[in-house]
Design a protein that fits this description.
Length: about 260
């Protein structure tokens, strides 16, 4: 069933798959390193956001779709290990850690906490680029079909965006609309199959592709709640009821990988 669903995503003319530049988030307190990373990766067709501390990482990741994180473990007044641990517990984003040349214990600990690779300072931007490309290529090579669905970065529709990685729904006005896990799973099921009638059984099965949660309330109640949140910010109905058949998501959808 997973293979069939993925093929439907690829073949559906209403779903536009957009290849967007890789977006890297680099966190380092040294402005010269931040500039070097931003300039070199930018010259190689990557979009780069830089931060001087880890305090706003969560905010940046909530507002943007980040593909890879470069994290200095020695941030003044902050615990880089704790930042890495927290990120790995909430996200599968690839992480490259930066450490001093003599800090072997930090490199080992960082990898044990879930970082995917490391570089010791000073490092060449060319090596950094090669490691980024290798890491992204390796992660894509080992993708299963289920992982492929999970690796969709975001869905966009009539000004809305659903950031899949951080489960953030943003309205056309830029407002964050809170949604429950059940509503998130249901919306993903709709966005993966726009302009097609989905039965209640299909919605339940499709939503379970993204989460093992079993709805303890009827699909109709969940659809009603999701519809209310979407229509409070949208003048036209996005979810239509097809009497006796199920529901249909009426808008065109752009799928961003």
């Amino acid at each position: 069933m997973l293979t069939a669903d993925l093929e439907l995503l690829k073949a559906d003319p209403m779903v536009e798959v957009t290849a967007t530049p890789v977006h890297v988030l680099a966190v380092d307190d040294d402005p010269s390193i931040r500039k070097m990373i931003a300039d070199y990766l930018g010259d190689n067709d990557m979009h780069v956001t830089t931060l001087a501390s880890g305090k706003t990482i969560a905010d940046v990741m909530a507002r943007h779709t980040i593909d890879l994180l470069i994290l200095d473990l020695k941030l003044p007044g902050e615990d880089g290990m704790q930042i890495a641990r927290s990120l790995r517990s909430e996200s599968d984003i690839p992480i490259i850690i930066l450490t001093g040349r003599k800090e072997e214990a930090d490199r080992v600990m960082g990898l044990e906490l879930g970082a995917d690779d490391y570089l010791t300072k000073p490092f060449s931007p060319r090596e950094l680029l090669a490691r980024i490309r290798a890491l992204l290529r390796r992660s894509r090579t080992h993708e299963t079909v289920a992982d492929g669905l999970a690796r969709i970065r975001a869905y966009r529709f009539v000004g809305w965006e659903l950031n899949v990685r951080v489960r953030r729904l943003t309205s056309p006005l830029g407002e964050t609309i809170p949604i429950t896990n059940s509503e998130f799973n249901l919306l993903v099921a709709f966005l993966a199959a726009p302009q097609r009638v989905l039965s209640r059984e299909q919605l339940l099965d499709s939503s379970r592709l993204h989460n093992d949660e079993v709805y303890d309330r009827s699909i109709d109640v969940q659809v009603g709640r999701l519809r209310k949140k979407l229509e409070s910010k949208n003048p036209q109905p996005l979810i239509r009821t097809e009497r006796g058949a199920g529901y249909i998501f009426a808008a065109n959808v752009e799928m961003v990988r």
